Amino acid sequence: MHLAYTIVMYLLIPVILYRLALRGFRAPAYFRRWPERFGFFPEPGFTSSIWIHAVSMGEVNAAIPLIRALMKRYPEHQFVITTVTPTGSERVESVFGETVFHVYLPYDLPAAVRRFLDRTRPRLAVVMETEIWPNLFCACRDRDIPIVVANARLSERSLRGYRPVQGLAATALNCSTRVGAQTQTDAQRLLRLGGEPAKIEVVGSLKFDLQLAPELPDLGRELRDHWGSDRFAFVAASTHEDDEVPVMKAFERLLETDPRALLVLVPRHPERFPRAAARCRSLGYETALRSEDINASPDTQCFVVDTMGELLRFYAAADVAFVGGSLAYVGGHNVLEPAALGLPVLVGPHTFNFSEITELLLDRGGAERVHDADELATELRLLRQDETRRRRMGDAAFTLVKENRGALQHTLRMIEEAFEPAATASPARPERGVKSEK
Fold first, then answer.
1. Which residues of 204-221 are buried (b: 16+ CB within 10 A; e: fewer)?
2. Radius of gyration of the chain (CA)
3. Which residue numbers are catalytic?
4. Of the chain's two ends, which shows fewer C-beta atoms within 10 Å, N or C?
5. Torsion of CA 11, 175, 130, 111, to 10 degrees
6. If 0-12 CB within 10 Å is exposed, 13-18 middle and 19+ buried, where does residue 158 land?
7. pTM score > 0.90 for this model?
8. Contact status, residue 18 vs residue 48, Cβ threshold 8 Å
């Protein structure tokens, strides 16, 4: 099966290049740095490194506290960070600059993987969430490079997708040294995939350990001063096209009772920025763009954030957050960022990517689920009218995040055990293992 997989990967190269070019027409950054995706890049001259992989901006954001902690713990090592998307790349460069070596992760082709490992010479690999690549993982195992899968999650949908190649996926997963699952449900799915129980541990979600910049509240107030501090503002974050249609309908309903309301629209992907702005204007809304107008004015009705890496600042300025990818059949995006800022959170029905965390937030009263434009409009109107309810939901969301912090320390301990087994061997390790299903 492994050989068949590798042959198929090589046969798919023309398709991969076509898809990369197609994405490049929508997001020009995809046209750049193609050689890196095949393991060709200038030798950094490392004798050894610690390598962290985070596929895109969301995973990079979750990894930032972990990377900083590892840099403090292992100052003698060089750090390599790989991503797959240009947005992830931009985030790495904006946060870490030249303190790390950044390249795109190569495609899972033996020769490309070999070139990447020969140049970066990792002594430890930390893979965020569940990026399982058979050739890459097996190559690390063959070179005695310990792999830690951190913040691991596996949706039921993804598990079903692995079924045709489950044996190969299990072999790759078991090349890892340790797997830190976000939730008990994620751990059970990894076991169903074929993961070895002794390697899998529930450590919680690193997203709960989000480190907010101390100046964030001031930045939020600065934005509100421009908008009009007494206006009701809601952020529709990480939206896809199928989110934006009901969001716009709900906003139209909201304007009927509150003509001064403000919609801050933050599309998930840069290639959608122009289309989202055009949609707002086509509906007759007074529309401003972050890249052109810098800020919303008191007359702005739709403010489109067509820049990257600023979502937290706009959360800090808002009254309510709708988290996208959830009315669209995408699986939802990170609900913990607005929760950490004490915002009431609204989500659609499709939250399978963050099912356990979303359900926890719903159960604690920090979020409400809406199924369509009518329900979203109703919730927005209720929250607009009831400041006490907004505050109660926001407090519940913030408390949930605060109570569940700690995954960072457990993940660091797990990494140390994989990287320094002799130094960290101890019978007193905290028990956070996988419970058996009954």
1. bbbbbbbeeeeebeebbe
2. 22
3. 59
4. C
5. -30
6. middle
7. no
8. no
